[in-house]
Amino acid sequence: MTAMQKRIGLFFLICLVSVECLYATAGNRLSAELDRITGPKDAVLVQGDGSSLLAAVNADTPLIPASTLKIVTALAALDQLGPDFRFKTEFYTDDDNNLYIKGYGDPLLVSEEAAAVSRRIARMIDNINDIVVDTSYFEPESVPGTVKSSVQPYDAPVGALCVNFNTIFYDSEGTAIVSAEPQTPMLPFAIQRIRKTGIKKGRIVLTHHNSESALYAGRLFHHFLTRSSVTASGVVRPGIVNPKSHKLLYTHRSSFSLSDGVRKLMAYSNNFIANQILIATGADRFGPPGTLEKGLNAVSHYIRTKLKLKTCRMVEGSGVSAQNRISVRDLSIALEAFKPYYRLLNHIGNEYYKTGTLNSVNVTARAGFFDMGGKLVKFAVIVNTRGLTADDVMLKVRRAILRRNSEE
Length: 408
Prior knowledge:
By secondary structure, the protein is of the alpha+beta class. β1 (43-47) and β2 form a beta hairpin. α2 packs antiparallel against α6 and α2 crosses α8 (292-307). The radius of gyration is 25 Å and the shape is elongated. The chain contains ten helices and 16 strands. The strands form four sheets. The protein has a six-stranded antiparallel sheet with strand order 2-1-16-15-14-13, with helices on both faces. A five-stranded mixed sheet has the order 11-6-4-3-12, covered by helices on one side. The chain has a three-stranded antiparallel sheet with strand order 8-7-9, covered by helices on one side. Helices cover 38% and strands 21% of the residues. It folds into two domains: 26-81 and 291-407, Beta-lactamase (3-Layer(aba) Sandwich); 88-256, D-tyrosyl-trna(Tyr) Deacylase, Chain: A.
């Protein structure tokens, strides 16, 4: 090695040591600031590109993640199903001229989709008798953390055939109940259900009781089919498709890819979408019918074999349950795997993030990335101390990141 090569090598070694010292100094400073405000039930991990650790507080303590858990659910689904996966809904006819609609858990089957599908079907048939709704691809079940009698959209139950996130958005004009969405008609079926609540406006949540959610989906399709000049003379009822005797008329593929669904999941923190994706992932891996247990087993296999998480415990996929647990270190590992999809997260400026709130147990959380000119700094924050929030912690994290960036 020449003297010049030795000098160049020494120069790069000094630069490397200087950068590591800079990271260590910034990390020590931030950790000290966070130690002063956090308690034993709070956790923070901030990590730069590579393995540079900027702050770690209770990093290995399993805590309630609230909706930041959706990152893990989305990762498992993207891995099992693929980012370009599209949910399907099948339409069959039988010898009695009945139309069967079989759902496969599409979480984004909304009024606009139903109207477009109906127009397409109207080009294939002129008249039908009954509309038969088949929900057999998923088993009806309750999601831990949701309330059965709730009118809150985040408590909407999962199902194989659901429209508009299993909710109806409505308003009142005098004594009349009207739709609060121009694309969604106000059906008599819905009006009867709404009047029972005594609530003048807002949303109602459809349930599995008496096949309510599936029958509403069938009635919505009935509306759009008749509007498309299909004569429908029968009733809407539950039933099962028999592939041997029923003829497949049309297979609808969602207008939204799984990546689109994940983007909407993160944007609206939609619990219904999260658990629909979870159960569909389980059905794809272990076969139908889709169940919460199969979905959790699919995610468990993914986090055990690929993410190799040590503290993650899930009882559902949205974070609505206080029984879920994960450490910020494991959440950071999940974020590392989520890097190819980080732009699916919400963002303000250079911060891409997923928040989480579970008021019943005083939890706030935030996880995501700072995009520092192509280099991503990960952060994971879970706060359970009364009077402190993840936003309070993030103020100090953002200041530290800006300070470190200016020092570099």
